[in-house]
Amino acid sequence: MLNKNEEKNLHNNQPETAPKNQSSFYFFPFLITFIVMFGIWMLLSGKFDPFHLSLGFISCAIVAFLSSDLLFPSPILKGKLTVFLRWLCYLPWLTIELYKANIHLVYLSLHPRMMDLIDPRIIKFKSTLDSELGLVTFANSITLTPGTITVNVSSDGDFKVHAIDKACADSLPGEMEIKIAKVFRKV
Amino acid sequence: MDIFVCILLFSGLFFLTAGSIGILRFPDFYSRLHPAGKLDTLGTLLAMLGLALFNLHHFSLGALLTSLKIMLIIIFVFVASPTATHAIVDAGVRAGLAPWTKGEKRR
Q: Which residue of A128, A141, B59, B70 has the fewest C-beta atoms within 10 A of its own C-beta?
């Protein structure tokens, strides 16, 4: 089932992004961009009198009108919300992993015989993720977690990763990729 | 509450200190980026969280806004830190620097 969906996604990739010269104004991307920006405006200004609010309203409307297609490259919003919510559920797990990875790294960097413990290497593997956002999330998560740094990612999923010791290198791609694939699977 | 804030702040400082020591002690460019990319992220996250909580001590709208701004800093660090680490690693690879392997002399 999942494979079928992935294939579909590959074929749909091209038509989903709207052509540039077509006049492309879509209401819902505009509205969401506007709400996000107005929230940040209120947060950063901290003034709630009518004058400042109307200034914010006007400038947010202009900027959202001009650049709502940056935040939403494709006007198709179906399933975006689900992906976003699943991504939010992924964050706590990432934070716990970050904590574990850091304790390991603190142990390494404070260990008196650190030079014997580390064994840096560069490993390569191919990821099965196909969405660009998924790849970026995966690359950043690799850098944040288990003693590994992403050196290079290509858009078809070839990863080059620098790992600090053998155990860290063996843990990739592993559980994290499965979790991210779950987050970004088609609805 | 105060104890919790103290724990957060001190663990944040602990991670930042360990990160600095790690940067000094690791043998080469690439392995030094490990503590720089990870320990600093977690250290900042914990310390900022502690500050945001401490700031809510006398609850008011202004204090809440300041805490939310601190949370914004956390989000930006969380996104920017791995990306910056990746950019630095990439610069090293492009310049042709070979990674240190076990058994070599430290650089």
A: B59
Is the ipTM, as predicted for this complex, more than 0.85? no
Across the interface, whether the CB atoms of B37 and A144 are under 8 A apart is answered yes
DSSP tag of A165: S
Residue B19 lies in a domain: yes
Per-residue pLDDT at B104:
64
Reply yes or no on whether the pLDDT at B15 is more than 80. yes
Checking if the pLDDT of A16 tops 50, the result is: no
The residue written with tokens 């724990």 in the block is B7
Q: Inspect the interface and report whether the beta carbons of A120 and B86 lie closer than 8 Å.
A: no
Task: List residues of chain B with CB under 8 Å from any CB of chain A.
Answer: 14-15, 18-19, 21-22, 25-28, 30-31, 33-35, 37-39, 41-42, 62, 65, 68-69, 72, 79, 81-83, 85-86, 89-90, 93, 99-102, 106
Is residue B54 a part of any domain in this protein? yes
State the total domains in chain B.
1
Kind and range of the H or E element at A159? strand A158-163
Q: Which of A52, A51, A61, A9 is nearest to A30 (CA)?
A: A61
- Taking alpha carbons only, the member of A37, A25, A89 closest to residue A63 is A37
Is pTM, for the whole model, over 0.90?
Answer: no
Structural domain includes residue B104: no
Domain assignment present for B61: yes
| Structural domain containing residue B64 | 2-94
